Amino acid sequence: QSQELSQVQIDYHAALQALVEDGTRMVCTGRMHTDRICRFESLCYSTEAEEFVYFHSNSSVMLPNLGSRRFQPALLDLSSVEDHNTQYFNFVELPAAALKFMPKPVFVPDVALIANRFNPDNLMHVFHDDLLPIYYTMQQFSDLDLEARLFFMEGWSEGVHFDLYKLLSNKQPLLREQLKTLGRLLCFTKSYVGLSKITTWYQYGFVQPQGPKANILVSGNEIRQFTKFMMQRLNISLEESSSEEYIVVFSRTINRLILNEAELILALAQEFQMKTITVSLEEHSFSDIVQLISNASMLVSMHGAQLVMSLFLPRGATVVELFPYAINPEHYTPYKTLATLPGMDLQYIAWQNTDREDTVTYPDRPWDQGGIAHLDKAEQERIIKSTEVPRHLCCRNPEWLFRAYQDTKVNIPSLIHVIRQTVKSKPRPKKQKWSGSLYPGKVRDAKCQASVQGTSEAKLAVSWQIPWNLKYLKVREVKYEVWIQEQGENTYMPYILSHQNHTFSENIKPFTIYLVWIRCIFNKNLLGPFADVLLCST
Ligand code: UDP
Fold it and tell me: How would you label 215-231 residue by residue, b for 16+ Cβ within 10 Å and e otherwise?
């Protein structure tokens, strides 16, 4: 079955002439392959060679023009996972004149976003690696609007969560396999290649054990803008004042089970005096789950990809992540990192089963479901005796898989105890109001005046004006930090002050040049920028 590309008619002869005459034009952002996204006009793809093709002509442009560094190791990452060697993008080059000898190009009239999905069968990967990065890549380039078309080049079939990818644009996303049905040589009129990594918060442990990314650049606000968009596309209304408060237990039905789920639900309902409901990906539609989670007071779940759904929790809600025996919660923190992103406003609680009696292992299952029967006897014994999986790299560590796929009988008193250490009263979502924290601007008109008393004493009177933005803000506490540094010294004397002027006399020497640094601080921890340094001579 051939795929309808678009209702938009294009003038085929004009398009072909433009391709032959102008060739391919590429301008990219980013200095390295890991932060690069490229915009192309007339980028082509040979479905036979399974290669992208760049056509040179008199008008073609290639920026950056890297020469052979384009292969060291690649022009860019096609997925949002950093520098993964199975996710590289490159093209082969040809002179536009070669088009004469090639199959007739088929033009793609839609603006295209070309990327790789990383692991479309795993919900955490779907949201973290694909949906959020695609959404914000589309936000970055104004012609990637709802009429743009997504092209997934990783080579997987649709996968179980394909409906989610469809929400990102009004056009059906196309997969690599489907391109063959469109023609032998496809030419994208306008396309963007690559994904923004700006929203990702976790690295999966390909080069060092997994953990939060070193430099997280996303806050709860951007996450919520994304979930708001997704909910609109799913036709889910944001209920501002839902009457009843409730707890959601997100269960897994195939593996990593909670063995005493009924008991757990009763205990939670009783302890928090709230309705408690269970959902699972197998038994509920995605929209129903989103609808329920978006109004929940607490989400309780075994560690696992389904916990990425805490994206949809209302502010103020609590996430309780349950870890099987021998799995240290500190070593596996994708959902903790999500819940504790700045401005996410979720409370995060981890509980771990520490009782061997309460775990059920499956040594005889296949290796990818945590079986260890294929290992030698000594190694099997070591794993079974071990009380904690040591830190490891992704993705096939048998000890990790063995422990990750255990079932757990949750020790209810122990779980309630850890939840109660954080949740003192009734857990409840907060009113959905914006509460971003704003930073002060620079202090203004800083001045200093020195006075010398005798040969050994001096004073420095320093004054400044409030930051410009303060007059429009209600700020609980405004303080100023002043550093006084003698010129040429690398130490300084710091002061925290409440007023806009101060006379310094301690350790101030006559006939000396001081550098004075001043910045404003809102509410103890919102540090503003330093104003231009003030040079003061006594
Ligand atoms: N999954 C599920 N129920 C189960 C087991 C798995 O819904 O009983 C889902 C899970 O949420 C994820 C995918 O299947 O989206 C793959 O699960 P896996 O255990 O491989 O990954 P993990 O959850 O550990 O990231």
Answer: eeebebebbbebbeebb
Q: Which amino acid is at 206?
A: F
398 close to ligand 1 (CB < 6 Angstrom): no
If pLDDT is split at 50, 70 and 90, which confidence band does 2 have?
very low
pLDDT band at 437 (very low <50, low <70, confident <90, very high): confident
pLDDT of residue 9: 66
128 CA distance to ligand 1 middle (Å): 15
Question: pLDDT (tens digit, 9 = 90+) per residue, 102-122?
Answer: 999 999 999 999 999 999 999
The model's pTM is 0.94
Q: Tokens for 97? A: 């004149």
C-alpha span between 387 and 355 (Å, rounded): 10
If you measure from the C-alpha of residue 305 to the centroid of ligand 1, how many angstroms do you get, rounded to a whole number?
6
Q: Which atom of ligand 1 is nearest to the CA of 254?
A: 8
DSSP one-letter string for 151-175: EE-S-----TTHHHHHTTSSSPPEE
What backbone phi and psi angles, to 5 degrees, belong to 471? -70, -15
Cβ–Cβ < 8 Å for 504, 463: no
Task: Report the distance separating Cα 31 and Cα 33, nearest Å.
Answer: 7
Identify any residues that bridge with 444 across adjacent strands, giving them in sequence order: 465
- For residue 432, is pLDDT > 60? no
Q: Is 66 in the pocket of ligand 1 (CB under 6 A)?
A: no
Q: Which of the listed residues 117, 253, 258, 281 should we mutate to test ligand 1's pocket, taking the one with most ligand atoms within 8 A of CB?
A: 281
- Cα(293) to centroid of ligand 1, in Å? 18
Distance 127 CA to ligand 1 centre (A): 14
Q: Which backbone phi and psi does 97 adopt, to 5 degrees?
A: -60, -25
Q: How far apart are CA 148 and CA 168, in angstroms?
A: 9
What residue type is 90 in one-letter code?
N
In the predicted model, is pLDDT for residue 7 greater than 60?
no
Q: Could you report the per-residue pLDDT of 170-225, keeping only the tens digit for each?
A: 999 999 999 999 999 999 999 999 999 999 999 999 999 999 999 999 999 999 99
At residue 249, φ and ψ (nearest 5 deg) are -100, 120
Distance of alpha carbon 211 from alpha carbon 201, whole angstroms: 9
ipTM above 0.90, yes or no: yes
Ligand 1 contacts CB of residue 279 (under 6 A): no
152, β-bridge pairs: 115, 175
| Phi, psi values for residue 126, rounded to 5° | -60, -50
Is 253 a pocket residue for ligand 1 (Cβ < 6 Å)? yes
What separation in Å is there between the alpha carbon of 304 and the centre of ligand 1? 6
The Cα 137–Cα 453 span in angstroms is 63
Q: Ligand 1 pocket, 123 CB below 6 A?
A: yes
| 434 CA to centre of ligand 1 in angstroms | 33
Tokens linked to 469? 């933005």
Regarding the beta carbon of 125 and ligand 1, being less than 6 Å apart is answered no
Mutate to test the pocket of ligand 1, among 122, 259, 299 (most ligand atoms within 8 A of CB): 122
